[in-house]
Structure formats: C-alpha cells, structure tokens
Amino acid sequence: MSDKTQTNRILTTLPETEFLRLKQIVGDKKATPPIPALIPVCPATWWNGVKNGRFPKPVKLGANSTGWRVEDVRSLIDTLAQAAG
After folding, report:
1. Sheet of 65-69, strands arranged across
2. Cis peptide before 58 (omega within 30 of 0)
3. Which pLDDT score, from 0 to 100, does residue 7 have?
4. Where are the domains positioned within the chain?
5. Three-state secondary structure readout of 19-82
6. Which residues contact 13 (CB under 8 A, 6 or more apart)?
7. Tell me, what's the pLDDT at 9?
8. What is the pLDDT of residues 37-81, one digit of tens each?
9. pLDDT at position 56
C-alpha cells in the first residue's frame, strides 16, 4: 500500500470532530488490542514537537486529561504527507 493510500485511509477513518488522546495519536503496542500510531513517534518526541510548535497544541479537558482536536491532527497528517512527496 502506498503512503498516499495509507494516509487517505487514516484520514477517512478519523471522525469529523472529536478529541484524541496521546495514545490514539502515537499508538500503543501494549494495549489490547494494540492501538496503531497515526503519527509514528514516541511520546517524548510528540511533546517536544508540541513545545516547539511542530505539532498542534493540546486542549486541557480536565485536571488529569489532555487531548488534541482531531481537525488539528488531520491537518498535521495532511501536511506531513504532502511534505513526504
């Protein structure tokens, strides 16, 4: 499967509006069932990208809960796919 086809499949399976948690974005191989990564980076790399503005800013959902707007993650995936060629 080509990168463009895989990116299109990922974008069509995401809901129109929702918040995603970190494990939904970077994946979790240890979960049952495993959660595939939308952006294949480790959590530390993700947070560094958030800090330096490469990745979208999070939204504080509660005292111990942080999420990202699916629209922002969708836009990031599209931008990364275009940059890859």
Report:
1. 19-20, 65-69, 59-62
2. no
3. 54
4. 3-84
5. EECHHHHHCECCCCCCECCCCCCCHHHHHHHHHHCCCCCCEEEECCEEEEEHHHHHHHHHHHHH
6. none
7. 64
8. 999 999 999 999 999 999 999 999 999 999 999 999 999 998 988
9. 97
Rounded alpha-carbon distances, angstroms, from residue 78 to 5, 9, 61, 82: 12, 12, 25, 6
- pLDDT at 16 (0 to 100): 76
Q: What is the mean pLDDT of residues 2-6?
A: 55
Coil vs helix vs strand at 14: coil
**Is 14 a residue whose pLDDT tops 80?**
no
Strands 19-20, 65-69: pairing is antiparallel
Provide CB contacts within 8 A for 72, sequence distance 6+: 56, 57
Distance between alpha carbon 2 and the CA centroid of its chain, in Å? 19
Return the amino acid letter for 39: I
Q: Which residue, among 4, 20, 30, has the nearest Cα to 73 in the 3D structure?
A: 20
